[in-house]
Each structure stands twice: as structure tokens, then as C-alpha cells.
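re: ur question from earlier - yeah i can do the single chain one, its not a big deal. heres the input i used so u can compare w yours
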Amino acid sequence: MPEDTLRGFPGFAAGRDQLIPVPGAFFGEILPMVDDLAELKAILYTFWKLAQGSGDVRYIRLDDALADLVFLAGMGETPEEQQAATREAFARAAQRGVLIEIQVKRGPRTEIWYFLNSPKGRQAVARLRKGDFRGLIHDIDDVVVGLEKERPNVFLLYEQNIGMVTPMAAERLRQLERDYPEAWIYDAFSLAVERNARNLAYIHRILKNWAQNGKDTPAQPGRSLRPDHDADAEKPDEPGLFIHE
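and the output i got, formated as C-alpha cells:
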């Protein structure tokens, strides 16, 4: 069989398949925006997974997706590639604002849960931030909330401010992640955008300069990337909750 032969699908079965509700905004706003196939798969998988639940507090655990062999089969060739692609796909969907990510401590383990960024999803997350854990499927010991991340990952930063990520650019971006703190990379992108020097070489020079000479204060530029928010927004709503950037 030729390598480029498409896999066949026999068709949907009559009267047996469950219909999955998908918000209309997905087709008008999200679908034209998402240009990463793995991220699109993660979003569609979330719609399906949430439809299996019941009640007002519905969420998907990243561990559940990582254990779903049928889902993972479409995310890469090797188990390592599948796991990495799945983690990245859900993280991208959260950074884009389609999902809301929460880190949950269960005993010695920390799990990542995703809620749909819908009215019900936001209400459920607000309840968790206030210590109201009623209606959850899983028992939890503590909630560590990393809500609505304001800082996109380095690949999204590049796509939004420079252009398409080529294989060469991807490797350079991974190297930046290995060499420099995430906050520095974000600030360097922000500074490059404000100076209209949108290229990795300039961003790398900024980071090397900070590494050699020190970065004494947080970068004041960043207005072009960072959304405005009150200083109080950095504080957790409850003393028992911890915000993860």
C-alpha cells in the first residue's frame, strides 16, 4: 500500500453514535484561529470528554488524556512524542483562552485539570478559588490555581509577534527556554516588539545582555503583549490557595 494512502472510515452508524454538543462560537471564532492540529484535537477531545460527565462542575484531567490510547494514537509515532504533543496541545488551548487550566494537589501528586472557558466553567473555577469543592468527581486535598495564564508559551509568542514557526526557529526557541527564565523571554519579546525589532537574533542579544550584566528590575515595556490588570489581581482570593504563574 502506498505510504500516502489515506486511512478509510466506514461511516457513522445509524442511531448508535452519541451526539456531542459543540458551542457555535467554536466554528466562527476558534476554528479559524487554531492553526495547530494537535491543539485542535485537544479542544475537540475536551468537548467529547466533558459530554461524558454530569452536573455543573465538569472538567478534564490531563492524566486522563495521557492514559487514553485511542486519543494518543493520533498525537505522534512514539509514546514519548504522544505524551509531549498532548501536554503541549492542552497547554496551547489554555493559553489561547479556550480552556482554563488549574493545578490540583492530591496527596503528594500535582495534577492538571482543564475547564472549558464557558460561563459554567468560569463559575466552577471561581468556586474552587473560594474553597468550594462541592460536586467534584475527584477528592482533592488542596487547590493550587493557575488561572487564565497571561503569558503565552514561547511558540505562541513567536507566532503572534514574528511569524510562522519554522523547524530552525523551533529549535532556537527551545534553546531559549533551556537557557533563560520564562519571564525573561516574555520581557525580551515585549521589548523587541516595542522597538520594532521582531527577530530572534535581537531577542537573543537582549537575553544575553541580561544574563551577563544583570536584570535588576522587571521590564517596564510589555504594554504591547501584557494585558492590563490591577495589582490586586496577582493576589490569591483565599489565604489557602496559591497562584502559579
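The chain is about 45% helix and 10% strand. not sure if urs matches, ping me
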